[in-house]
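Quick illustration, no need to memorize.
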Amino acid sequence: MNETIDPATPAPALACDSHFHVFGGPARFPYRDPKLRYQPPFAPLEDYLVRARRIGIERFVFVQPSAYLRDNSFQLEAMAQMGSACRGIVDIDEDAPDALFESLRRQNVRGVRINVSPIYPREEGLVERLLPRINLLEKRCLEFGWHLDFLLPGWLTEALLPRISELETDCSLAHLGMFQAAEGPGQPGFQKLLKLLETGSGRCWIKLTGFYRISRNPPHYENVAPMMQALASVAPNRLIWGSDDPHLSFAHETGTITLYNLMCQWAGNDTLIRKILVDNPAELYGFENVN
């Protein structure tokens, strides 16, 4: 998507996009998911960087797209072009050999996904089926200095909050935990999340990403604002922003610069914007030399 809008607020030095994806041509990098829920675009790193550099993004966190399942090859190739300015979140088997974890860490990987489709319907027993993977990956992440990156439907986020509150490693929740903005910050699951952030271990981070995934009010997604502001009121040091570029099936509704502008507008002050874009991601992803 070619946006003509300009960034309303210049990004501070060392600003980080903490959640975006790249897609290669399917001839060389075939999609691995036989049940694709979206048509993957051709979205190479060069195209994304045009948008990111207009904002002033200097640090980058690649997130493995579900279309590739656990074949991280295209993302790793793109990450190699960015060197120490990037980090990566991959999808790998929980029982993968230590040598693979070590190799990925040398390539600036710092986390692994627990990925369930955000439109997955309620299903009895799903929590219990996920726990073995979560339990084992928690141990692996502790060993290698990684964190768990959760993408879950809101109902599943709520169901897993007791386990998330017990994690001994850091974790992040994509798309504000996928709690639907139409139900507001007073909904029970979101209130449980706020309590965890306020009284918990401080290991849970919230990604201010995918506003269009929790709201059906384009292009300004006004009902997301009170959700983000509620989070900022209890955990300003645990919020990070990501573009979710290339926006997949939502590209016709909004774009990276628009979403950046909305986040800055809702944050309301430069101090919080700097936390979200610079200080917080530097802590979570291990970037150095924060000004």
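The first strand starts at residue 16 and ends at 20.
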